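For the sake of transparency, this paper describes our internal protein records without simplification. The record that follows is passed on verbatim for readers who wish to inspect the format:
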Amino acid sequence: TAFLHGELEEKIYMSQPIGFVDPKHPNHVCLLKKSLYGLKQSPRQWNKKFDEYMLSFKFVRSNYDHCLYYKTDSKNPVFLLIYVDDM
């Protein structure tokens, strides 16, 4: 469900999904408000959302690997590595 939270930066239209076609307007299209699985923009939009979330908790993104976040403001440093295997 992660990809469903990404904000789109451009207008994207899609045909009405099978099973949800409006019988009064079968030729109308839908304007997407959020990312969907299968859109080429979805992985990047999810990453932006995740990055904002991590930064809001005072994590720092590594300059060497953007999948690594760390927080060292206490005695116990925290390292978080993001790994996605199905892209």
In short: The CA atoms of residues 4 and 43 lie 10 Å apart.
